[in-house]
Fold this sequence. Notes:
CATH class of the largest domain: Alpha Beta
Protein name: Peptide/nickel transport system ATP-binding protein
Number of domains: 2
Organism: Kribbella antiqua
Family: Belongs to the ABC transporter superfamily.
Order of helices and strands: EEEHEEHEHHHHEHEHEEHHE
Strand order of the largest sheet: 6-7-8-3-9-10-11
CATH topology of the largest domain: Rossmann fold
Keywords: ATP-binding, Nucleotide-binding, Transport
Domain ABC transporter: 6-259
Amino acid sequence: MREPVLEIKNFHVDYGLGADAVQAVRDVTLTLHRGEVLGLAGESGSGKSTLAYGVTRLLPPPGVISGGSVVYHSPGGSYDVMTLTDAELRKFRWAETSIVFQGAMNSLNPVHKISTQMLDVIKAHEPDLSPQARTARAAEMLKLVGISADRMDAYPHQLSGGMRQRVMIGMALVLQPQIVIMDEPTTALDVVMQRQILAQLVELRERLGFSVLFITHDLSLLVEFSDRIAIMYGGRIVEEARSSDLYKDSLHPYSEGLLKSFPALRGPRRELSGIPGSPPDLRGMPTGCSFHPRCPHAFDRCSTDIPLLATPSSRNDPTRSVACWLPGRTPVA
């Protein structure tokens, strides 16, 4: 197992304060290792993006981080991101951790050229670098993501959706951060462009050595491109495993439902079943396991007790964890 680069421990995020607060992220513990791609999957509203914005302290009001820590392990030492001052936080973002947002057209300023936006990032963090060196680095990074340097003077609307997303990836990597958080970066693109961008991301990861937290509702993408996958439901992590293990032998009924909602590329045909019902309303979460109203295997205990995320008794594998009361999936005694 690689050494950790980011450790999220007992993390909580609420929307609002007091008795009316909505718990969007509940007691999440997650570790991102150096040089790996960690996938975070779940339906819309499960808390994936809220977790990413909370970890980077980009959560807009009325979002509130109500508990937990986010320990970043840098080459110079470890520190809790939640304790950084505003000045320290500005240095941490982009230089240590960057984000590729879901909508590239909304993330790029439409009235500024691509060159202006990329050079501003470099200038803000490395003011002593000469203008020529900044331009050369921006051009080199665009070339790495498959965009010719002569497109630097283009405006965002003059680029295709795929090119705009590549520009966002280039901006995220221009300072060579240790961690890149990607929040559904390929949702608005066709499947061919999705595969091209993800393949290029894997190539860049191998070349530059950064770690990736990849957030998406499309589990089929993560199975192919990630090292490990964490499944999120109702604000909690309900299963975590290596991508190959999750695909071949998922343990949580919610993970099974997600896997059965897309067709297999190889092997015999199988019926797509999906998941009945709707995601829970965070303002009135079910008691016990939050998935039990939709679970085909639920029994009495599921509606009263909240299962803990832990290594199941049926697996002697510390890389696997699941939060489920089904036989063989409860924690090791």
